[in-house]
Amino acid sequence: MGWLDKNPPQGALYYQRRWVKLDVDYLRYFDNDKEVYSKGIISTAFITNVSSVGELKFEVVTSNRTFIFRAESEAERNDWVTVLQDCTGGRSRHSTMNPNSPLSSDFQGYLELRGLRSKLYTVVASDKVFLYKNMEDYRIGVGITSIDMNVGNVKVTDRRSFDLTTPYRIFSFMAESEQLKEQWVDAMHNAIGEALSNSEVADQIWMERSNSLCADCGAPKPEWAAINLCVVVCKRCAGQHRGLGPSISKVRSLKMDRKVWTEELIQALCINVQSSDVLETLSLIFCGADVNCSTGMPSCPSPLSLAKAHSQLLQAELIKNNLNTELPRLEVGLAMDVNPYSPPLCVSHNGFLYKTASMARAITERKAREEFSRRWCTLNDGTFSYYESDKNSNPNGALKASEIVCLAVDASDRHGYDHTFELYSESERLYLFGTDDADSHKEWVKSIAKSFIPASAEPLLRLGFERIGRLKCKDGLNLQTSKVGWFALVGSTLHAYLEDSRGEEIHLRKLNELSIQQDNEVLVLVERGRTLYIEGERKLDFSGWCGAIQIAAGSGGDTLSQQQLTETDIPIIVHSCIGYITQCGLTSEGIYRKSGVNSRVAALCERFRRDARSLCLREGEHQVDDVSTTLKRFFRELEEGLFTSEDAKTWLSTASIQDESMKISQYQMLLNRLPHVNKATLQALINHLYCVQRVSDLNQMNLHNLAIVFGPTLFQTDGKDYTAGRAIEDLIQHYIHIFEVRVRAHARASYIMLCISTTPGGHIICTVYLEEKKETATAEYHVQIPGSMTAAELTCEVLDRRNIPVKDKEYWSCWEVCNKEEMERPLHYQERVLPILHSFGTESHLLIKKYHSMEAMICYLVDVSKHGLMKFREERSILGLGRTTGSFNDRYFILTSNSLRMYKEVRSNRPEREWPVKNLKVYLGIKKRLRPPTCFFHFYHPQFICRYLCCDTQPEMREWFATFLSIQYDGDVWPQDGLQQTRVSRALPDTRHGNVSLIPLRGSENEMRNSVAAFSQDPLAVSQPTNHWD
Known about the structure:
There is one protein chain. The protein is of the alpha+beta class. The chain contains 27 helices and 47 strands. The chain starts with a strand and ends in a 20-residue tail after the last helix.
């Protein structure tokens, strides 16, 4: 090597100074002596002549090119010529290469190098990569440079780009297509493997004739070995051995895993396997001998130490490599019962998958196929690893099973590949993998889930889950400490395995409440009798769980079973519409015959479809005809129909049966064949229509008219004949017999209709109690309550009947009282009474009495916010049936104009819980069995979740209660001119949108009948008093 002046190839007169190196294969020249990669290379195999020309010059001649160099002295010139002639003299071009190529290449083609405008012809050969200007230069052996791959590393950067990184320079290449990029990457990885490999061990092992072929398939020159089984295998069979797991077969490379190959291990593979001692050792191990057993000798406690002590190095090597091998064996108990040995669960799997770059945020957009890169993936020893190719020994990345917190299976059309899944790690990273092979996808999902789900939650693995993983949660029995839960989402059902508990199912479409609280860190699921708080320990996977659960809890399609359901399996949209019409539109003339406004109906349908649970139909905000049309449209557009497409024709044909008893029997048989949700929905609807036609003298919708409207709607026909109508007419007419309604329930329904039809305007007859503090007397009054009556008007009417004057600073109020819950609530003077009666339980009643604390409350109201410490307890209340779910705990509360926030302590920055104030009902009092430490008040969420708050003193409780009322009613707690001004005439609302009477809520049926003169003709009068709600 040395400095030479080189004449440029264009034949210019000036020379360029170059550092020149010569080895047996190439003459290379560089810009300076510190450069690693040359400016040009000349293959010595293509040099045909080297001679001196002129002063200090010499020329190097190839078949197509002549290179002229100039030395600094005559002696130096002669030395270069001599060395070059010795290197090339007598060398045959065809002795080292094929006639048409200077190099035996593994892969070749054009690649674009970043920074150059033109493409370079690139050749991967053995353990090197060569760069040429074009294919012609490659053919004549004149190139730019070569890259030794023993210091190289390949990294994919884009769908067509990749980097070849060395300690000295980064070569950024771009292929012509993604497929070619994958081939280039694989070829360069092979070159790296070849550069790092050492054939010395392989050559030594192959010298044994039995090792020259794969032990499994017989392929020649196997480069892998199962060191604990003492067999050599080819690359393909090595993959199968890896799939067995390292506890069965420990696979190592003969060329790359240098540290593994001790002299003893090489001898174990090279000796004649007929040697009796080695053969006996192998036989014992393969038959299930315990290599970890005790020898009973203190100096050599194990077989391994015993073999070493007796210089049996080969046997010691075999034992050492089989210390953790799991082999079938028989365990014989004292009673000689033979039981199969079950090794611990060990999950192994490998294969190609397509992967995107890992992400720190949720995937919101579709990932195209071009964004995925092909990777060889393995799951071994509780570690999921991915490699550039199956030939690489160093993974691009790895994820321990203990770090995986969630596995999500995407829908088939979510991304560019047909089948994809997502892995979430504890370090807040998301990994997306895909494949077009459904079986491979299923096997990967199963194997990965099995690797990180504990044995206590193993039943989750048998489910066809969409998402599975680990979350922290609290339940109603213990809100102090979180516990780890394992969850799997399957359709609309959330399966859960909590600590020290058996599995349970949460039907998401039947939840009473589903909300995200505390700055999106807690997911609250409220079902019958229980509240579950799922905590967001990690934002990335928690946001995925929240989105998936909210979607699953919504309406999933257009069939009945895919709707959000009540606890009785009736779609919420049906339950809400029926309830609203029963309350506000049962006497509306032409109900169900008149259509609502199309835009409002479409908006209602969309809101119900999006989240029926959150929509509350309210009088004044929603119109009766809009709601009735929404209900009809729901049934008209229902997929499969209410009667199912399979049996609909049978229902219609049944209507033509003449014999009534046979017809009813056939209807009952068809009813029992319906799916459970369809059957429950049909019964609820027919019960409602039965009630509608009972007041046909008010709404003009008799049996025939309802059948005309609902026949084509429910059977989804064109309505050209009366066949569908006749079937609906039969169901309504024979409702009692077909649905086998109990006599008592029928009597109650008939009594409701009687109250509506015999009371002018369809008003309710309600029992109200009056209590005078001075006389300690309680009186009972039966008051006719129209839909527009307020609490103040009801109070004045009862006081007028008793001729009780309202004095100054006497705060007579109407109270809602629940005896069973031992609680009461003063109604706001503008609050309508009828909706309160509609929500009553059997133990509730209305009471007129003085509110002695009102004056103090009015004086207190100077600010609309409050904060302070109170004791807190939560329990679930279902229609007045309380269920205890915890104890009282100190909490700090802040009440503002918008919300009530609860903090764990005064110094906490984030609230534990938060409730919108105007959605709460606040009551005074508490059940004695709960043993309240001080005075209490509590509040209800609209879904009947009861929270108890305990104040230290009565004045403090009044202050909190007054602040609640002031916020909820914008400071208007009591009429400014007193109660007398509320005695005004009450105009009845339009009967089309008016309120309807409900059942009397107090006393026996006979007592309630006696409250209305028309009841004297009631044929349903009974001789014995019976509780009305039995």
